[in-house]
Design brief:
Elements: E1 4-10, E2 12-13, E3 25-26, H1 33-47, E4 56-63, H2 71-84, E5 87-97, H3 104-113, E6 117-123, H4 127-132, H5 139-151, E7 157-163, H6 170-182, E8 187-192, H7 200-203, H8 211-227, E9 231-234, E10 237-239, H9 246-252, E11 256-261, E12 265-269, E13 275-280, H10 284-290, E14 297-302, H11 308-316, E15 323-324, H12 326-332, H13 340-348, E16 358-359, H14 363-367, H15 369-374
Parallel strand pairs: 1-4, 1-11, 2-3, 4-5, 5-6, 6-7, 7-8
Antiparallel strand pairs: 8-10, 9-10, 12-13, 13-14, 15-16
Helix pairs in contact: 1-2, 1-10, 2-3, 6-8
Length: about 375
């Protein structure tokens, strides 16, 4: 059976960062925790007929800033989810958190509530870069966040870091990375700042390092990560052995996931093999109002078969070691032979590895991943 994950979106932040294109909104003075948890559980209940009795393998609570919610609200949410749908004994349950939005006791209570993995949004330890990025925390709070996570009993947590920041030097990027490594996370997400549409940075773009300089930063950073035992397994994901993010791996391996919460996206495979994507209403108030009628989806579509090869490869080829070739048929309900001509072409071009049992880019194909993917359109 196709693995099933659950994504939960909590849309509020202290303030909107200028680079962020996620569905996030400035938090009101009093968060409507109870109303929102009730809406989330009603939302999940409405999706249950699509799950075909499958247990959850992972839960990811993202945002926004989920750590603005109390531990009591998170506990109520997880208990409610457990009553509605079974989950595996070894389930990974991740909560996103931002420094400056929690204290020691809250993290301890999150752990007691059932959260067993954290993803902490650091982005940088440099005071000037934090200011440019619009982050609400300072460098000391960023360092303290990892310390609090350790003390609260989390032996599995991720730190989010950006590079290619305005006026950033190689030395500054490596210093950020070294400070994160010194915090001993099990996982690091290290990715390049990009100017996304519908963000303040897109409308008022800062001056970013040029492509050659970005390449130097990336090469130096990857060498530093490898030196400290962080293995790159995806475009921007690095982990210690056996500490990859299982939730994100399910995305990249074209697994199924339910999306609940304001603006959440989901992907579910029907019994006949058709794949349906859905999205929930984006505005928090509208989303909670819809809870009264049980109508949460703002849109849904069945993926056309002609687009499945691109959709699958768009995810699978992000993994450095690729995926088992059998997954293509299992997850798309299409024979691998349907894309064999494209595979043969990209193998001849040196973009896809000539390994029959694996769908994987060569180093060249992975370096120019966007170009490689165009052959599957």
């Amino acid at each position: 059976m196709i693995p099933l994950s659950l994504y939960v979106h909590i849309p509020w932040c202290i303030r909107k960062c200028p680079y962020c294109d996620f569905n996030s909104h400035k938090a009101p003075d009093a968060l409507p925790e109870q109303a929102y948890v009730d809406a989330l559980l009603n939302d999940l209940r409405s999706e249950l007929p699509q799950t075909q009795g499958r247990p959850l393998s992972t839960i990811f609570i993202g945002g926004g800033t989920p750590s603005l919610f109390s531990a009591a609200a998170i506990k109520q949410l997880l208990n409610g989810i457990a009553k509605l749908i079974p989950w595996q004994d070894d389930i990974e349950i991740t909560l996103e958190a931002n420094p400056g939005t929690f204290e020691q006791q809250r993290f301890t209570d999150y752990r007691a509530a059932g959260i067993n993995r954290l993803s902490i949004g650091i982005q940088s330890y440099n005071p000037e870069h934090l200011k440019v990025l619009g982050r609400v925390h300072n460098a000391d709070e960023a360092l303290k966040a990892a310390q609090i996570a350790h003390q609260a009993g989390f032996d599995n947590f991720n730190l989010d870091l950006m590079f290619g920041l305005p006026q950033q030097t190689i030395e500054q990027a490596l210093n950020d990375l070294q400070q994160a490594i010194d915090c001993e996370p099990t996982h690091l997400s290290w990715y390049q700042l990009t100017l996304e549409p519908n963000t303040l940075f897109h409308h008022q773009p800062p001056t970013l390092p040029d492509h050659e300089y970005l390449w130097e930063i990336q090469q130096a950073g990857q060498a530093l990560l490898a030196e400290h035992g962080y293995v790159q397994y995806e475009v921007s994901a690095y982990s210690k052995i056996n500490r990859q993010c299982l939730h994100n791996r399910n995305y990249w391996e074209f697994g199924d996931y339910i999306g609940i919460g304001a603006g959440a996206h989901g992907k579910l495979t029907k019994p006949d093999g058709q794949i349906e994507r859905h999205q929930k209403y984006r505005q928090p108030k509208q989303y909670m109002d819809k809870a009264l009628s049980g109508s949460f989806r703002s849109s849904q579509e069945v993926l056309e078969s002609k687009n499945l090869s691109f959709e699958f490869m768009l995810n699978a080829l992000r993994l450095k070691s690729g995926v088992d070739a059998k997954l293509y048929e299992q997850r798309t309900a299409q024979p691998l032979s349907s894309i064999q001509p494209v595979l043969d072409k990209t193998i001849d071009m040196g973009l896809i590895s000539n390994t029959p049992d694996t769908l994987c880019c060569t180093p060249q194909g992975w370096q120019f991943l966007d170009d490689t993917l165009t052959y599957f359109l």
